[in-house]
Amino acid sequence: MKDKYIDLIEQSFDFPQDEFSVEDNELHFHDIPLMELIKQYGTPLKITYLPKISQQINRAKRMFNVAMAKVDYKGSYNYCYCTKSSHFSFVLEEAMKNDIHLETSSAYDIHIINALYDSGVIDKDRYIICNGFKRPQYVENIAQLINDGFENTIPVIDNKEEIDLYDDAITQKCKIGIRIASEEEPKFEFYTSRLGIRYNDIINFYKTKIQKNKKFKLKMLHFFINTG
Q1: Confidence check: pLDDT of 153 > 90
Q2: What is residue 35's three-state secondary structure?
Q3: Helix (H) or strand (E) holding 118
Q4: Which portions of this protein are annotated as coiled-coil regions (predicted)?
Q5: Alpha-carbon span 132 to 147, nearest angstrom
Q6: Domain segments of the chain: what residues?
Q7: Would you give the DSSP letter of residue 195?
């Protein structure tokens, strides 16, 4: 009977991997002896290997650059780090060393944006992509960013009523994104706005709510592919 943790690892992952090695029956992570850390700090123990963050960001940039060159794409690629993946300051500061932008998912995340700005890690020219369901506090915080001069803050709308909230709260010109439920059946009985605006409603929504409003400029389309 296989009932050891190593059995679970071997059946779930390709092991060993580049980051891990086993020496004298003890696990090492990037040549760091994990048993020594466990003896010092105990368990459970979470380790963040900061160099890997920059490596993965630059790997993504290279992959997109290669793909864009193959199809002669004339646009640019902007990597956005999603703050919900880790709120720790040391993680965000490492990520921001790579000339990237940010994506938020909640009202709390906007406080992180302000803290990064106050500490000089970012300036007001960075793209701040605001995804996620917009509860009142989140809308208020997004509006605060835009009204304070973060001109590349882009709230991504995932339901048709949301834009009215920004029209009331924002006093500056504002870039807008639209989340499109690209695979959503328009007459689906249990349709929810989390997936975005129905694709057959997009053009009319743009013409009536964005094109005619001098405050808003459509900057981004977010295609939501529902694979779940």
Answers
A1: yes
A2: helix
A3: helix 107-118
A4: none
A5: 20
A6: 21-73, 78-224
A7: G
Give the whole-angstrom CA distance, residue 151 versus residue 148.
8
pTM here?
Answer: 0.83
**What distance lies between CA 85 and its chain's CA centroid?**
8
**Vertex 55: Cα angle to 51 and 60 (nearest 5):** 150
Instruction: At 88, list the tokens.
Output: 């720790």
**C-alpha–C-alpha distance, residues 74 and 160, integer Å:** 31
104 within 8 A of 131, measured Cβ to Cβ: yes
Smallest CA-to-CA distance from 96 within 109, 79, 108 is with 79
Q: Does the domain at residues 78-224 carry the CATH identifier 3.20.20.10?
A: yes
Q: Assign 42 a pLDDT band (cuts: 50, 70, 90).
A: very high
162-169 and 136-147 helices, crossing angle to 10°: 50
The residue written with tokens 């990597």 in the block is 79
